[in-house]
């Protein structure tokens, strides 16, 4: 979002919350504009505007949103329809039940986020050989926990401005943001824990 587009967003906020943006306790609009421009630099202006308007429409407290609230609203707008941990597990459970002979095919059918946690078709095959009680309790619990953590990490990463993402990547270029996965052991343990 450009500085000009950010100014339009700030005008929307000033119109919706006039009491906050006037008077002696009003924030310095130049500094506010600079901060919002920086924080939303990599974001689509239409999405930011939609998130601001969604926030205003649902606001019952009468206070303007902070940057994090708008970033979160943006994430909610673009991620609706995503799988929760239970739905993701159900896909894995079905895939594993068909993986004694079709693990490659079943692995390819899983969504990318689920594939990254499962790790490989071989893991599906191993799970297909496990006793169902262990699979449906231990592996299910571990998978769903890692899936929730991964989804929250993805959400938080998506909310970061591009310059912060660049700094994090430069500090740790070997770090792969998308690679938490199950280890290749039969109890469904997780790598890196």
What features would you describe in this structure?
The chain is 67% helix and 0% strand. It is elongated, with a radius of gyration of 22 Å. The chain has 10 helices and no strands. The chain has 2 domains: 3-79; 85-171, no CATH class. The chain has 193 residues and is mainly alpha-helical. It has helices at 3-16, 29-39, 45-58, 67-79, 85-97, 99-109, 112-118, 121-129, 132-159, 162-171. Helix 1 (3-16) runs parallel beside helix 3.
Topology:
Blueprint: H1 3-16, H2 29-39, H3 45-58, H4 67-79, H5 85-97, H6 99-109, H7 112-118, H8 121-129, H9 132-159, H10 162-171
Helix pairs in contact: 1-2, 1-3, 3-4, 5-8, 5-9, 6-8
Give the gist of this structure.
The protein is mainly α. It is 67% helix and 0% strand.
Uncertain regions spanning at least 5 consecutive residues: 178-193
Strand content: under 5%
**How would you sum up the major sheet?**
none
Helix content: 55-70%
Number of strands: 0
Given helix and strand content, the structural type is mainly alpha
Distance between the termini: 38 Å
- Number of alpha- plus pi-helical segments: 10
Backbone shape? elongated
**What is the gyration radius calculated from CA atoms?**
22 Å
Instruction: Kindly give the count of domains.
Output: 2
Provide the residue-averaged pLDDT: 86
State the order of secondary-structure elements, H for helix, E for strand: HHHHHHHHHH
